Amino acid sequence: MPSAARIFGKHFPLTIPPELGDEASLLAHLGLSPKELKKIWWYRERMYAQFSIAKGGGKVRHITAPDKRLKILQSKLAPLLDQLYRVRNPVHGFVPARSVKTNAAAHGRRRFVVNLDLKDFFPTITENRITGLLRSLGVNDRVAEIIARLCCFNSHLPQGAPSSPVLSNMICFRLDSELLRAAKAARSIYTRYADDITFSSYQPPSPLFEGALPAVGRFSPDTLAPSLRETFKSNGFAVNPDKAHYADRNSRRVVTGVKINAGLNVDRRYVRQIRALLHSVEKLGLEDAQQRYADAGGKGVIAEHLRGKISYITHLKGLTDPVVRSLATRFNKNFGARPIKLAPTIEERRDRAVWLVEHSAKGGQQGTAFFLKDIGLVTASHCVEGVSDFTVYHPSKPSNRFDVTVAKRCPHRDLALLGHAIPATDYFELEAAAQPVAVGVAVTAFGYPGFGPGDKMNVRGGSVTSLPIKSGVQMVEVSQELAQGMSGGPIVDAHNEIVGIVHKGGPEEARQLAIAIDVFQTWVAE
After folding, report:
1. How many whole angstroms separate alpha carbon 247 and alpha carbon 249?
2. What CA–CA distance (Å, rounded) separates 209 from 215?
């Protein structure tokens, strides 16, 4: 076993927790008597249950779970071991506040992805490796032996024990360091989620391979660069030949099951499966749908199965995503006793309520529109001047455009109400303020000035500076600049209620003006 200084570098030496100082301190912390330790030492294999759980693609994952007593002991050891492990940036598995989502997000929308999998990950991490690692860190020899004995099954780490995650990450510390250096040399990003390893780059990752880049799809690990193969070998691991995969910019790029081609997403088949199960419940009824689900090999209760799948998509895409809201709405109609909560945050509601207006008149123009509760889709009249048919879309998916029409327009007040057939699951609505706004009140303007692909909604804070009347129309003047492209967007107060609709502004305008929301309400009611 290499020295701790070689493994942990400048972060060594570490402070050993007092509970790991000697055998007596460890047993006292665990509440474990020497007699019980001796029993576990010789009969630990009897304290595990082995079973399999289904994975995607008809595959299974083998789990070795400790019994209640051993699980308690391992759970007490895990926090102490955490103190001996310094998390590396590329590691996303078994780390607080990190997940498959953060692992996938780290690769952004990079065009080339190399996926590798460590073969027999947990069985490869032997009891002797655990003992040697702990000793090299300065842990007492006897304490290291006891920890390894309590945390291993059949002389290796079991997948299913509470202590296995941190121990596996500790064993992989040097591997992570060396692969990170290899990634930097190849101008790539490297991450690891347990046994799943990913490299991604904007340019073809030629330095990661010995010869020419492999064809898209599965490839042999033998084609990896010799230095990379040696890194895995010297760290006691082997690459699974069945799970080595290469993807380029023209193919589907997946990181730990998450598509990264255009933002984080799941495979369409995953969504289709959820819709098929929901359709089964809606058409057959819960009892018959449950039976069909069981006959097809499904385990457990169909409602909880659906809840878990929808929750996973929600974790990746957020509550504002139309697909998430559509699936959750259908789920809630069928399983109302335990509905999936759909309440968005203020920021999420604002984001999904404000859209872009675009048409080709006058060489092409863009503006902002928003959904007003009980009214509809609102914008400024000059944003749709000279056109009757145009499109609106949300920047989260510019390709998903909706045709809209001008249902009502008032050039004098610079207001327009738009007719649309946008599904209710695609947007949120904002509410109008119940009381007129006052001078000095803090307000925020939203819109899309100079919008380009990849831009997000522009948020500008300020305050009301005056309440002028122009040509008989009540205005709201604000201190922040209302740039071109924000016209038609909402201005909200501290309660997230609309006080005005952006009229005009920008550096070439003397004043930054909006139409008071009560002017719009009066006009619509006429």
Report:
1. 7
2. 12
